[in-house]
Every structure is written in structure tokens, then in C-alpha cells.
Amino acid sequence: IFVGVAAALLWVVLRFRRCKQPVGYVTPQIHGHNGLEIAWTVVPLIVVLAIAAYSFVTLQKDFQPLTQADMDVTIRGHQFGWEYVYDGFTIHQEGTLAGDVTPFVVPTHKLVRLQFEGTDVIHSWWVPAISGKTDAVPGYTNYSWLKIDQAGTWRGECAELCGAGHSTMQIIVQAMDQPQYEQWVKQQQAAAHPSPSATPSP
């Protein structure tokens, strides 16, 4: 559209410049030309509607709800840290600048649906290399997803100014191959549900 308008403007400037016209030349005066008025109203309208329709269809394909997730994890933001709620146990991560925070662990090659909640103020979970920003809002549930195809570690941070300790809300995402992930899950489940110690006999 821009190229077409610019080309038409350049053509008019060159074609009808004053030096090419006789002395006293007056351009034809056209008033109330219905055809032109309809054309410059309808054509842009069609173009805009076509772009809007294409954008809507594309966005619907990109933002289909996840129904085939391999696992679900709830991420809760609080001042100043995160909680990662798995099926059967929860990882509590408090913010710090003194070292690495407790990682959020996921298996490789698995589609993970993330549910975001806020417990006090608005936080924003952001790991640039693997995920966009997703807000954790009190009283409102947000959703996102991730799928990591190689083992490794990625870093992020809270992207919403949430108080004096905002800078401590670091994020580490660690992806493990399935055998290592299953071993990690067993360790977390054992820590969350320790076996009762035997009662000594009298």
C-alpha cells in the first residue's frame, strides 16, 4: 500500500509539474466525484478488513487451548520468591542475590502446561530464552506452556516491579532427560512424605 501510494504521488508530481504546462494553465476542477469518493472509501476498507480477518485466523491457530499437555505445574509468585506446585509435592523457592536459587525442574521433550497465580501483588515470570512474560495476578489465573528439547539450564527473573525485594526474584529453569527427572521426582516425593520412623519397643 505504501509503495503504491508513493508511486502514484511521484507520478503526479512528475507528470503534472508546472514547467510542462502552458502559461496560465489551470488543472481540471472536479467536485463531488462519486466514483472517486466511493473508491477511496471502499478499497481501504476492504484491505483493512482482509488484514484483520487474516490476523484473527492466525491468532486463533496460535492460541488454541492446550488439551494434550504431558504434565501440569502451578507457579505461584509471592514477595519475594516462587512456588512450583507439582503433582504430589511443592518446591518452595525464596529469592536471593547471594547465589543460585532453587531451580524449576522439567523433563525434556514434554509439553508442560503452566498455571500462574499471585498470592499478594502482581509478579511476572520471565525466562527469555524459553518463554515469554506471563503475569501472576492475585485472584486471576494465567496460563502458558513450555517444551524444552535439550537438557540444560536457563535463567530469568520477575519482570514486574513488585516491592523492595523485586531484584531477588531470580528464576532458574533446569531441563533434565527423563531418567534423571524421574529420579529427581522420587527424591522430592520422599522429602515431602518422609517414612515414619520406627517406634522403639519399651
Task: Give a verbal description of the structure.
With 202 residues, this protein is of the alpha+beta class. It contains 3 helices and 10 strands. The strands form 2 sheets. The chain has a 5-stranded mixed beta sheet with strand order 3-2-1-5-8, with no helix packed on it. A hairpin with a 2-residue loop joins strand 1 (71-78) and strand 2. The longest helix has 29 residues, at 34-62. The radius of gyration is 30 Å and the shape is elongated. 14% of the residues are buried.
Architecture blueprint of SSEs:
Layout: H1 2-15, H2 34-62, E1 71-78, E2 81-85, E3 90-94, E4 104-107, E5 112-118, E6 123-126, E7 134-136, E8 142-146, E9 152-158, E10 170-176, H3 178-192
Parallel strand pairs: 1-5, 4-10
Antiparallel strand pairs: 1-2, 2-3, 5-8, 6-7, 6-9, 9-10
Sheet/helix structural class: alpha+beta
**SS elements, strand count:** 10
As residue ranges, the low-confidence spans are: none
Name the beta content range: 25-35%
* Apparent shape: elongated
Strand order in the largest sheet: 3-2-1-5-8
Helical stretch count? 3
The main sheet comes to: 5 strands, mixed
